[in-house]
Write a structure and sequence with these properties.
single chain, alpha/beta, Rossmann fold, 7-stranded parallel β-sheet, 8 helices, 7 strands, binds NADP nicotinamide-adenine-dinucleotide phosphate
Length: 254
């Protein structure tokens, strides 16, 4: 039986670990060849490449600081030279300083917006010609509930995610007629390294989230990955420009 993403090439930003890694592995299981992208963790990225090769797919790891437009250009040059195509783009990498809005400096603002929001547009502008040449493409951006809700010490990241969701809607409209479908996914709390950066009692936060989640557990990276894979498949033709919340029902009660 032909796998749903057979013969596709997928680039997942920030896929050396966490949610991006799970997405890369799921897209590979569904048949795609994979570009693992990372900032500093080259060893972890190479380990994901090895896992994907073990699934019988091709994979490469490319490092690039997304805040730097030249590095973004180089990332896509390598993808083009290696695979000659890129059918699926997952904008997953994110960063940010855990601060309240009144504490933010220009440096905090620029770094967070450049990596999380501006680079998303640069990457997508670069990947679109590759998708247009095939008349098929799938783009999923990864947002967060902080785009619309106020979360502790999350001001800069939350604002950057609001930009990501708005960008997703604009691009979805511009690209739908080209056979390129753009959506966003917004995960609830997922236990990854990212959440250890916040100055909160992590154990209490995790316990509170589990207790308040109707589904009775935290969201896992694999939960996110399966939804992303569905949005990237031909099974999805008419979900366009949406932000899909994956939180086990948490926000329904909050
Ligand atoms: N975890 C959650 O609870 C949660 C909830 C809602 C939304 N999200 C969103 O889900 C996505 C993944 O989160 P995660 O928890 O898996 O994050 P994570 O474990 O912190 O991983 C972040 C990834 O982004 C890469 N990265 C960071 N800064 C970069 C930069 N300047 N240039 C290039 N790559 C960079 C990292 O590369 P290195 O490994 O090389 O450092 C890593 O691969 C993010 O968009 C996040 O906002 C997460």
């Amino acid at each position: 039986m032909k796998l749903p993403l057979y013969n596709k090439v997928a680039l997942i930003t920030g896929s050396s670990r966490g949610i991006g890694r799970a997405i890369a592995l799921e897209l590979a299981r569904q048949g795609a060849d994979i570009v693992i992208h990372y900032l500093r963790k080259r060893h972890a990225a190479n380990e994901v490449v090895t896992e994907i090769e073990g699934l019988g797919r091709r994979a490469i790891a490319v490092g690039a600081n997304l805040a730097d437009s030249d590095k973004v250009g180089h990332l896509f040059d390598v993808v083009e030279e290696t695979f000659g195509r890129c059918d699926i783009f997952i904008g997953n990498a994110a960063t940010g300083t855990p601060k309240d809005a009144l504490e933010l400096t220009n440096r905090h603002w620029d770094w967070t917006m450049d990596v999380n929001a501006r680079s998303m547009l640069h990457c997508i502008q670069r990947v679109i010609p590759l998708m247009e040449s095939k008349g098929w493409g799938r783009i999923v951006t990864i947002s967060s509930p902080g785009s619309t809700r106020v979360l502790p010490h999350y001001a800069a990241i939350g604002m950057s995610k609001a930009v990501v969701e708005a960008l997703t809607r604009y691009l979805a409209v511009e690209l739908a007629s080209e056979g390129i479908i753009v959506n966003a996914v917004s995960p609830g709390l997922v236990e990854t390294k990212a959440i250890t950066a916040f100055p909160v009692d992590l154990q209490a936060t995790l316990e509170f989230a589990i207790e308040r989640t109707p589904a009775g557990r935290l969201v896992t990276p694999e939960d996110i990955a399966r939804t992303v894979a569905f949005l990237c498949s031909d099974a999805n033709t008419m979900i366009v420009g949406q932000t899909i919340t994956i939180d086990g029902g948490y926000q329904l009660l909050a």
